Amino acid sequence: KQEVTQIPAALSVPEGENLVLNCSFTDSAIYNLQWFRQDPGKGLTSLLLIQSSQREQTSGRLNASLDKSSGRSTLYIAASQPGDSATYLCAVWDTGNQFYFGTGTSLTVIP
Amino acid sequence: NAGVTQTPKFRILKIGQSMTLQCTQDMNHNYMYWYRQDPGMGLKLIYYSVGAGITDKGEVPNGYNVSRSTTEDFPLRLELAAPSQTSVYFCASSRNPNTGELFFGEGSRLTVL
Asked: What span, in angstroms and rounded, lies between the C-alpha atoms of A19 and A110?
């Protein structure tokens, strides 16, 4: 069974810093990996989707990379802002016909 | 742009009561999912559907039932509510999970007392 791990569980940084969030998965037979943002009391919003054949995806200040062979993905956030404060989750869609989610990294950006 | 809509947002149930969480999407997605999210535990799949008339169990189906009579609607039924079903429930949909994004509703917070 696929297992998805996110480290650290929580992260606090001053505004303006660049930061990296990590996601690892145990089975490399995946179709894609998604990064989500979840604000308190809200649903998940998809940020970036990386297909298994891709190495990275970019959207604005966000860049996600995927190394399928090593079972790792990173989400890079440039020039962090207080509005980036949220929980970030990664999920993989594998050949088991379901998504597997990590438990998330809670990010706080301090003004 | 309604996307995925869930009702109710909040509900308190007594042990043994039953209820239905409603989920509807207006994106004509074939794939729909029900997850529960517990603190520190991540999202667990309850049931999913790959199209109207087709449903299947996920990781934690016990105590729940679903139906999918239309492409738009995917209600989740809780029978004989138990305190262990206290959680936040999310409905999600996707056009094709092999290539596309997963869209979530805002969630339904259920408390069983």
From this structure: 13
* Contact (CB<8Å) B41/A103: yes
The identity of residue B43, as a single letter, is L
Percentage with pLDDT > 90 across chain A: 85
Return the sign of the alpha-carbon dihedral for residues B64, B2, A80, A41.
Answer: negative
Average pLDDT over residues A13-18: 97
Beta-sheet pairing, B108-112 with B10-13: parallel
Residue A104 Cα, gap to closest chain B Cα (Å): 7
Could B101 and A49 be called an inter-chain contact, meaning their C-beta atoms sit closer than 8 Å?
yes
Q: How far does the CA of residue A101 sit from the closest CA of chain B (Å)?
A: 6
Across all residues in chain B, what is the average pLDDT? 94
The band of B1, judged by pLDDT with boundaries at 50, 70 and 90, is: low
Give the span between the Cα atoms of A16 and B110, in whole angstroms.
38
